[in-house]
Design goal:
Number of strands: 8
Helix content: 25-40%
Largest sheet: 6 strands, antiparallel
Distance between the termini: 13 Å
Radius of gyration: 18 Å
CATH topology of the largest domain: Immunoglobulin-like
Shape: globular
Number of domains: 2
Structural class: alpha+beta
CATH architecture of the largest domain: Sandwich
Length: 251
């Protein structure tokens, strides 16, 4: 990205990897807001942020189902924990059904983070990792653990019927769990996972479907639904506005 926008994302400690996808930081050092497009990625983000325009705040973002343009204020510094959905129940001990496509502000002393912590990424990672380790459940429901594992391994392409059979959990109960905890159906979440995988392919310059899409038109339609643009334009990533794509290209 430009010299005024910096980011760094790392994989979590193995002890918390069942619940956390990555830990990251970003800074907009410019004197102008940074325009970005938030696109669905199947993760639940916990943000610790501050800027001259906004006091230190902690925000939990729910899942996204469509693209949304946002601005990162000038001189913003942030630390983010990107959770896998199973963490909603076991680590965050809440439901995010009410924050689909939006977020909620948490207490500004959440996890004992302070504004000055944000300037030390290693410290933030250490504090968050330690806190999550303290919150790890003694035992998670094996059906739920298996369900999310299969969904991610299959890149969202395993049918509800197959997932139900392999987890010994009825499709009705699975959908009830998804609706109650995450605010959307299993099928809707699976479609987002497929898009996320396609995004990784687009980051590699592959502009044709690599997964189980009906045809090229179906692929283009779904990419436009979740990003707002066709695969070719998404790949160009003008002005680095698709931050997730920039991160994937940088891998």
């Amino acid at each position: 990205m430009g010299n005024d926008f910096h980011y760094n994302f790392i994989e979590p400690d193995q002890a918390i990897a069942d619940f956390v996808e990555n830990l990251g930081t970003f800074q907009n050092l410019s004197g102008e807001p940074k325009e970005v497009v938030i696109i669905p990625d199947g993760r639940v983000d916990l943000f610790f942020m501050q800027s001259p325009a906004e006091p230190f705040c902690v925000t939990l973002l729910g899942l996204e189902t469509y693209p949304e343009q946002r601005e990162i204020p000038s001189k913003t510094t942030a630390f983010v924990v990107s959770f896998k959905p199973i963490a909603v129940e076991y680590i965050l001990n809440t439901s995010i059904a009410d924050v689909l496509n939006k977020g909620k502000v948490l207490s500004d002393d959440f996890w004992d983070f302070k504004a000055e912590d944000l300037y030390d990424f290693k410290l933030c990672c250490k504090k968050a990792t330690q806190k999550i380790k303290e919150l790890l459940p003694e035992k998670a429901d094996e059906r739920k653990r298996k369900l999310f594992e299969l969904m991610h391994l299959s890149k969202g392409e395993m049918s509800v019927k197959d997932l139900s059979e392999k987890t010994a959990w009825s499709s009705r109960q699975i959908n009830r769990y998804f609706t109650k905890q995450l605010g959307l159906s299993l099928k809707a979440y699976s479609t987002i996972l497929r898009f996320r995988t396609s995004l990784e392919h687009i980051a590699q310059g592959k502009l044709f479907p690599e997964l189980n899409y009906t045809d090229q038109n179906h692929f283009i339609k779904e990419i436009k639904k979740f990003s707002g643009v066709a695969p070719k334009e998404l790949s160009k990533n003008k002005n680095d506005r698709f931050v997730l794509l920039s991160v994937l290209k940088g891998k």
